[in-house]
């Protein structure tokens, strides 16, 4: 025990002292924040710009309605009522003004626009892919045209607008502790983020353990160490030491998220619209997250440790990693099915499979807490699998860690299991 | 109580048998040489003693107890493949080794500092291992092996790859450890070191002990001191089996192993009568000769008649 602790300490300190740990810890949140706010930031930048548009109105009826509806001050519209005879001259004139940069666009509204039916507007501009401007123009002119059509048909536009308004959907989460109003989008985002970080960190720390084992082999220190500790202690030291690094990293991220929420809540809410709800993850979900991270980590890092012990280099490991990564990719893919149907037989069975449980059982707990016996059963199965994996992998590890040169074949590994 | 005992120990890797029924006894307090050609099973034997690999069959005892767990903390082991963690600081690495061998952290660090002092490495404790030269790393390895004052020290090929100065330092460490009362076992295929250092030897060939005992005894057992003769003429006396047990004739030079009870003097007398003697020399059997003689004899025995 004392020896295992000493090895855990060594693995932990060696990594936490390294630059890589701090760069990784800081880089990931920066990356995520960047990912979600960079588009919003640029939208914000472009939003401040004013656009000048000339609307050539062949119906001769739009000017009043358009000016009356003008709410967006960044869109300046100059309406020129015109006859079709003036059209060629106007097109030429306006095209020149556009190329000189005096106006951003010219929009031609045909005379038939106020009659029922589908009518096309024609837009002339230097940049025809400014979606924001195009949409704003289309919406504004369409609204004005519809209003005129309604008036022509004897309807009150205000009344029609009120009568045809769609319904909103408010979502309420029914939990053990009561009913809470939750937004479906925010709920999905939170669950997705948690599952995604489980998936990423299980792969990330798993390969971390594997790399540690390969380093141990290539430093050739392994024989000296094995004369001092048992292989199981060496393996435990690696897995638990690196696991502790993972928990510390999670803790630091949690602190960062809390700081970020406290300091930047207002901004977050105004820009991304998800602010308030992130803080409202139920405690049960968080507890399940920790439990399934720890169990999943123990299972997958053990498997990755075995992989590390039978290869000589990381490039060799790359090819062999595939089946292991698949064990995590499959539940991640199944996530979209399970989130829609968390209680079907398929979902229940998938979430009980020990290799899938860390992701899928956690997901079910977060979405719609299943019966307690199912959670308990999955934890028990997971613990048994971990125990079995440690037993099997310990034997592979014991022989593999001393091997150099040729990579063992599957029959050879099976022989180690029988003889070790 | 012996330092190490092996009883009929077997180990094979797939088709290859590395150790085939090895019996070995290392008494306490001696310097013990484990000899044998490359591939004889020395390293496999040592790894089994250290419980790094498990024997297929047989029993291994260290200091009178089965070789597992706490008893191995009283053994210091220097593998042939010497590697350290390159990114660790020297003093922290030694501290870790000490703790893994059962020392308290403070104690391990203090002893490590003392040893670094002794080897003139006091300024290197806070450096990373990878910044040290190969020679310095070798010294750090040795410190790691003896830091916890083990009762038994096992060194696998300790002299391989060492320059003469380091070789001398290693020899001094070995003698000093013996003085302290420790048992030192080392494997080697360099016979000169064995002859200078060892009290006891065991010669391993093809996984079996072919010769074992006190060095002086072994030498006297193979004590027929050889006669070297440079000559001209027809040496008919070589065929006299009552006089010559074995010879190796080169035409003008012959190495003779006298028959039992025959003195070199008697051979010289006969030789002088039959040939013109240019040079005559009585040679102490070197361990090297014994080694070759025994190993070759083994090989010969296995050739079906």
Would you kindly provide a brief summary of this structure?
In chain A, 70% of the residues lie in helices and 7% in strands. With 420 residues, chain A is an alpha/beta fold.
**What's the CATH topology label of the largest domain in chain B?**
Rossmann fold
Number of helices of chain B: 9
| Oligomerization status of the protein chains | heterodimer
Largest sheet of chain B, in brief, is:
6 strands, mixed
Q: Average pLDDT across residues of chain A? A: 82
Describe the structure in your own words.
With 420 residues, chain A is α/β, with parallel strands linked by helices. Chain A has two domains: 50-163, D-Maltodextrin-Binding Protein, domain 2 (3-Layer(aba) Sandwich); 182-419, no CATH class. Chain A contains 17 helices and six strands. Chain A has a four-stranded mixed sheet with strand order 2-1-3-4, with helices on both faces. In chain A, strands 5-6 form a two-stranded antiparallel sheet. Chain A is elongated and about 100 Å long. The model of chain A is unreliable at 274-278 (pLDDT under 50). Chain B has 305 residues and is α/β, with parallel strands linked by helices. Chain B has two domains: 4-219, P-loop containing nucleotide triphosphate hydrolases (Rossmann fold, 3-Layer(aba) Sandwich); 224-284, Alpha-Beta Plaits (2-Layer Sandwich). In chain B, 34% of the residues lie in helices and 30% in strands. In chain B, helix 5 links the parallel strand 7 (152-156) and strand 8. In chain B, helix 2 (90-100) crosses helix 3 (105-118) and helix 2 packs parallel to helix 4. At the A-B interface, helix 1 and helix 8 of A face strand 6 and helix 2 of B.
